[in-house]
Design goal:
Elements: E1 2-3, E2 6-11, E3 18-24, E4 35-40, E5 46-51, E6 56-61, E7 66-71, E8 78-82, E9 87-92, E10 95-102, E11 108-112, E12 119-124, E13 127-131, E14 139-144, E15 150-154, E16 159-164, E17 171-175
Antiparallel strand pairs: 1-2, 2-3, 4-5, 5-6, 6-7, 8-9, 9-10, 10-11, 12-13, 13-14, 14-15, 16-17
C-alpha cells in the first residue's frame, strides 16, 4: 500500500491484517513521492517502484527491510518485470533507450533505440514489446530481457495499444491514422 510517501507491506495471510513493514520514501514531510509503477520481483523478495518525475527506482527489500535507490537515466515512462530473465525493463518518454535492471545486484544495462518509448507489454519467454503510444512514431521494439537483443519493427501508423496472445506467439497493434 502506497500512501503519504510511504509503502506499507501488509501480511494478508494472517488475520487480523497488520502492517508487516513500513518504508518511508522521504524524511521530509513537505516532499511527496508519487508512484508511477510498482512490481514485485519473481522471487517476491523485492518491491520495485518508479516515481513520477524522478530518475529513481526504489528497491525495497521485503526480507531485510531495507531500501535502496537505483539511479536511472531519466524519469521512466513504463516498467515491466520479466520473470524469465529475472530483470526489470524500463523505457523513457524523452530518451531513445530501454534499461534492463538485474534483480540480483541491480545493475543497469542500457539498450539503444531509434525512438523513445512510453509503453511496455510483456510477451513471455524473456521478451518485452516497447512502443510509443503518445507520439507519431512508427517503431515497435522486441526486447530480449535475457540477452539484451533488440529487434525493431516498423508499422504503417502510430500504435495506440498493443496486445499479446497468452502464448506470446502473436501481437496485435491498434494504430491511429496519421493526418
Amino acid at each position: 500500500v502506497l500512501s503519504r510517501s510511504q509503502v506499507v507491506v501488509v501480511d494478508l495471510a494472517a488475520e487480523p491484517y497488520e502492517a508487516a513493514v513500513t518504508f518511508h520514501l522521504t524524511l521530509d514531510a513537505d516532499q511527496e513521492v508519487d508512484a508511477l509503477g510498482a512490481a514485485l520481483t519473481p522471487d517476491d523478495r523485492y518491491l520495485l517502484m518508479s516515481v513520477v518525475g524522478r530518475a529513481d527506482l526504489y528497491v525495497m527489500d521485503l526480507e531485510d527491510e531495507a531500501i535502496n535507490i537505483v539511479d536511472l537515466a531519466a524519469a521512466p515512462a513504463a516498467m515491466v518485470v520479466d520473470p524469465t530473465a529475472d530483470r526489470t525493463v524500463l523505457v523513457y518518454a524523452n530518451r531513445p533507450q530501454a534499461d534492463l535492471v538485474d534483480h540480483r545486484v541491480f545493475d543497469v544495462e542500457t539498450l539503444e533505440l531509434d525512438e523513445p518509448c512510453t509503453a511496455l507489454v510483456a510477451a513471455g519467454g524473456g521478451r518485452v514489446l516497447a512502443y510509443n503510444d503518445r507520439a507519431a512514431t512508427h517503431d515497435v521494439y522486441r526486447l530480449d530481457a535475457s540477452t539484451g537483443d533488440v529487434e525493431e519493427y516498423r508499422v504503417p501508423n502510430p500504435v495506440t495499444d498493443l496486445q499479446v496472445t497468452p502464448d506470446g506467439a502473436f501481437a496485435v497493434a491498434l494504430q491511429r491514422d496519421e493526418w
